[in-house]
Amino acid sequence: MTALKNDRFLRALLKQPVDVTPVWMMRQAGRYLPEYRASRAKAGDFMSLCMNPEFACEVTMQPLDRYPQLDAAILFSDILTIPDAMGQGLYFETGEGPRFKKVVSTLADVEALPIPDPHKDLGYVMDAVSTIRRELNGRVPLIGFSGSPWTLATYMVEGGSSKDYRKTKTMLYDNPQALHLLLDKLAQSVTSYLNGQIMAGAQAVQIFDSWGGNLSAAAYQEFSLAYMRKIVSGLIREHEGRKVPVILFTKGGGLWLESIADAGADALGLDWTCDIGEARQRVGGKVALQGNMDPTVLYAKPEAIRTEVGRILASYGKGSGHVFNLGHGITPEVDPEHAGAFLRAVHELSAQYHE
Fold it and tell me: Which residue is catalytic, options 7, 78, 84, 127?
């Protein structure tokens, strides 16, 4: 086991002292980087990139090689690997995003779904994790991840992306038995999938609840948070002699921070609609916070980016327990130089808060 040369990300998630606020970016390996676009062209398409451990490793390492300020690597994969392994037939339409050949519409459809074995059915992800971990050689920690059951269910019921989640929400109210069974199967699948990633070398894991914020308060508790809580309770929380922190991120979940903080994770991801200082007051010392700059700030000039970084750091205030990140993924049109200015600003401006 190679010792970590930079563990401030893991330390901050556990609210231990750090020298500067650690930083990484959601979708940090992505289309804004010319080197990523070259790798994707070489691989042929997005799924070929995901399903080849060497390519997945190559693109995971690209932002780290470009930006020495990054304090974590995140596995290059897709949240829809689990539905694909359940036999839904994932494919990507140019300009349309992900699509499934099969959709889930009835209780019988749900009952027919298998729970995938992470090593047999998703072995390419486990191979990617171990390959990346070996290549990192202790440079920074590796984050594994999955989509939340609610978010995965929306894709499976809608057959792809959706603006209003009409089919899924109709199932929620008309056929809750079917939806609960689907969410339960997904929770089991996500738990074993993330535990597989941890055993393969992931040193922290994040659950992306991308669409939980589109639910009513009552529906969020019953159909999203309850299943994330179930996953968290089933995760391996210590491996290789150190804790494996868990991050929950519900986009649009700012209204429910106290409930999310009670779900048992170590950290909450915040989107940009929350004030991070107010969020810190609301959840107290219960969890660390990750976030939460609006990704579109990266279109602005470096001086404006630096100002916004400074504002968020000041809002959080002194002490550990903050991992700086964007409030959602970096977008393809961002200038890589602006991303670099953002990362440098976090380290340069945050030291004063950790004296």
Answer: 78
Q: Is residue 8 annotated as a catalytic residue, yes or no? A: no
User: Which residues 6+ apart lie within 8 Å of 82 measured at CB?
Assistant: 116, 122, 146, 147, 152, 186, 189, 190, 193
Q: What is the rounded CA–CA span in Å between residue 327 and residue 332? A: 15
Q: Is residue 2 included in any domain, yes or no?
A: no
The dihedral through the CA atoms of 3, 4, 10, 14 has a sign that is positive
Residue 211 pLDDT level (bands cut at 50, 70, 90): very high
Domain total of the chain: 1
The catalytically annotated residue of 7, 8, 11, 27 is 27
Q: What is the pTM of this model?
A: 0.97
pLDDT at 22: 98
The answer as to whether 1 is a domain residue is no
217 within domain boundaries: yes
* Cα 266 to Cα 96, 134, 244, 276, distances in angstroms: 35, 26, 9, 16
By residue range, what is the domain housing residue 22? 8-354
176: number of CA atoms within 13 Å, CB side? 5
Active site residue 266: no
The values of phi and psi at residue 205, to 5°, are: -135, 145
Confirm if 312 and 275 have CB atoms less than 8 A apart: no
Q: Active site includes 275? A: no
What's the pLDDT tens digit per position in 317-329?
999 999 999 999 9
Two structure tokens written together for 208: 């992306």
Neighbouring C-alpha atoms within 13 Å toward the C-beta of 195: 16
Report the 10 Å Cβ neighbour count for 44: 11
27 is catalytic: yes
Would you say 77 and 54 are in contact if contact means Cβ atoms under 8 Å apart? no
CATH code of residue 344: 3.20.20.210
Sign of the Cα torsion 151, 152, 158, 161 reads positive
